[in-house]
Amino acid sequence: MTGIDVNYDLGYPIVIGKAGHFAEFVRHLERPALVLCDARPAVRTIAGRVARLMGRARILTVPLEERRKRLPTVERLLEQMSAGGIERSSLVVGVGGGVASDLFGFACATYMRGIRYAHVATSLVAMVDAAIGGKTGVNLRAGKNLVGAFRDPVAVFCDVTALRTLSATALREGLAEIVKAAIIEGGDFFNLLEELSGDPPARWPWERVIADAVKVKTMVVADDRLETGRRETLNLGHTFAHALERASGFTLRHGAAVAVGLRAAGLLALRTGRFSREEHLRVLTLLALFGLPLQTAVGTGEIFAAMRGDKKRRAGRQRFTLPRAIGDVEYGIEASAAQVRAVLRRLGEAPEELRARR
Ligand SMILES: NC(=O)c1ccc[n+]([C@@H]2O[C@H](COP(=O)([O-])OP(=O)(O)OC[C@H]3O[C@@H](n4cnc5c(N)ncnc54)[C@H](O)[C@@H]3O)[C@@H](O)[C@H]2O)c1
Ligand SMILES: [Zn+2]
Fold this sequence. Notes:
Layout: E1 4-5, E2 14-17, H1 22-25, E3 34-38, H2 41-53, E4 59-62, H3 71-83, E5 91-96, H4 98-110, E6 116-121, H5 124-130, E7 135-140, E8 143-150, E9 155-159, H6 168-185, H7 187-196, H8 206-223, H9 238-247, H10 254-271, H11 277-289, H12 300-307, E10 319-325, E11 328-334, H13 337-346, H14 352-357
Parallel strand pairs: 2-9, 3-4, 3-5, 5-6, 6-9
Antiparallel strand pairs: 1-2, 7-8, 10-11
The chain binds nicotinamide-adenine-dinucleotide (NAD) and zinc ion (ZN).
């Protein structure tokens, strides 16, 4: 019993398992110089267990939240690491969600020009997305994740037991990314989510669901580590989502924005003659069953203006990743301003297709 090792092509182990699998996971890792963790009590408890199993390593607790994912927090942490005698050859282990993997990962990517870092993911977002793929970073006032580094962790452990204490909101954030991955992958993965959509989360085969989602991310990332092409596939729904988050003054949560963004991508794909109405409906139905929103009160003009600041724009043109079918996603598609505006106008209302079905 070692959990599921999703060791595709990234060159480091990604193990998905229960708390009991962790001892096996760390067999090949040395004793870390430091265990960093998010201050939330449930995460602290996991970090305590991790530190015990890793040779009674020292724990440093860092109060984290999106608002603190900023350079001053990194500087304080780096000073503490330096005062704590962390060396160029040290291994640091981080425990927490996506804010932790981004911020701890970034601190370790820059400390002495980079030290080894392993992450124990405790939130669904970290397990299926943030902790995988080597993107680390923090926010600037101008926007999210504007400062960062590509730096692979040496290992990632996804502790599915941790999901028991995760809030319903945080779980939904992860589900939005899982639906995105399932649209990219299609086939059995999407069917599985449809089957599970009627069951309470406590009964889900989480190891399998997370492994499927991680597989999508690792396959795409392995092909395009620095995001010069295929990695844009993972941006499905995100051009809209990022604009929505910004236009809402970041009051809208990322997962909620991604759900609305996936609807928008589907609408734009329909409008440009790429996607079928039936499959668009399947996606909307799944998102709705997971309790994710499909509409927004943020106005068309504000979202459109926010899209102009997207860091993924090239030569001033907006490019989209759009579904051609569930299981077939294209990137780098340009759409006219009129087409985009027409899609944004629809987002103010609940999908009439779904209303008609009820
Ligand atoms: N680098 C990437 O590729 C990438 C990808 C996706 C998201 N991200 C980043 O990830 C962040 C979002 O991640 P997140 O949703 O995990 O946020 P988060 O780390 O803030 O965690 C969400 C909340 O859940 C709590 N939590 C975490 N694990 C818990 C557990 N087991 N039990 C109870 N509570 C727990 C946290 O304390 C926090 O309050 C964003 O900053 C986003 O930019 C990065
Ligand atoms: Zn996302």
